[in-house]
Design brief:
Oligomer: single chain
Largest sheet: none
Radius of gyration: 22 Å
Number of domains: 1
Order of helices and strands: HHHHHHHHHHHH
Helix content: over 70%
Number of helices: 12
Strand content: under 5%
Shape: globular
Distance between the termini: 47 Å
Number of strands: 0
């Protein structure tokens, strides 16, 4: 019975991601349907006789319309954030919780640690993508195609808002909020963190994003768990996406020297470790300030 109960608890941890996936599917189909109705309203002949080919082309173009895809993504993420936010609040936020002030949640060490983690993890992610491109060009070409169709080669204001603001809130609520909370009740944090990071990677729908999202998800989970607040992992996620979307090109080395690439990768790893150390130091300082009687 204990094994069955444990298995049931683990399966229950899949529900937040499945709910988000369901919302995504519904929003996508609804968006495509409304777009088709709009096309028909503007040109009723598009689905008649010899114009059928044009209709098929019109529908196919939706998959490469970056503004349309960004809009669908933003609407989905907003709805998912609302649904998972309500779930998280009802299940995991105490009714008579005392609201924390920003000053009690953050300090210079915590912020500095998150900044270092952002920089280090961005370079590590870049080298992971380069390695995947070398090992499996097909995966990389698929990834590039997806990024271009969404519009990351020419980021619009709508895509920027989605990437930097909406997506981090939505994804953190899904994976580091509800999923990690339930998973931590069903298994030790070490395995719970791997579990939610795996789901986070799989949710991205392609191997390249899935692999580096899994690694980033591990760090987001640790930031949330160690800091005791979902706000901290949301902030880290926002900074990570902001750097990924808008970091200037001169910050990336595109030469062919293997030694320079290796040096940058090792430096990125050192920066990430330093960020973790500084973040943990900041959390300890925050706790000492909040509970001074614990350290006489």
């Amino acid at each position: 019975m204990k094994i069955l109960k444990k298995a049931g608890s683990i399966l229950f941890c899949l529900l937040p991601a499945l709910l988000a996936l369901g919302i995504q599917i519904i929003v996508t189909f609804a968006g495509v349907f409304l777009k088709i109705l709009f096309v028909i309203a503007n040109d009723p002949a598009v689905f008649q006789g010899s114009s059928l080919y044009n209709a098929e082309q019109t529908i196919a173009q939706l998959s490469s319309d970056s503004q349309f895809l960004a809009g669908i993504s933003a609407i989905y993420a907003l709805l998912a954030a609302i649904a998972l936010g309500i779930w998280y609040r009802l299940r995991f936020v105490p009714k008579h919780r005392v609201r924390r002030k920003a000053s009690s949640l953050m300090n210079p060490c915590i912020l500095g640690g998150l900044l270092l983690l952002t920089v280090g993890m961005q370079y590590i992610s870049s080298y992971m993508v380069m390695l995947i491109a070398a090992v499996s060009p097909g995966w990389f070409e698929s990834y590039q195609s997806i990024m271009e169709s969404i519009g990351f080669d020419n980021i619009t204001p709508l895509l920027a808002i989605y990437t930097v603001l909406i997506a981090p809130v939505s994804e953190e609520l899904i994976f580091r909020g509800v999923t990690l909370k339930y998973a931590s009740k069903a298994m030790p944090f070490f395995f719970a963190n791997i579990f939610q990071a795996f789901l986070f990677g799989a949710f991205h729908g392609n191997m390249v994003q899935g692999i580096y999202a899994f690694v980033a998800g591990l760090f987001c989970g640790y930031v949330c768990y160690k800091g005791g607040s979902l706000y901290l992992s949301i902030l880290f996620h926002m900074m990570f996406n902001l750097w990924g979307a808008f970091a200037p090109g001169f910050l990336s080395y595109s030469g062919e020297s293997i030694w320079i690439h290796l040096g940058i990768a090792l430096l990125a790893a050192a920066i990430s470790v330093g960020g973790l150390f500084l973040y943990r130091k900041g959390i300890d300082l925050r706790e000492e300030k909040a509970y001074p009687d614990r350290n006489p």
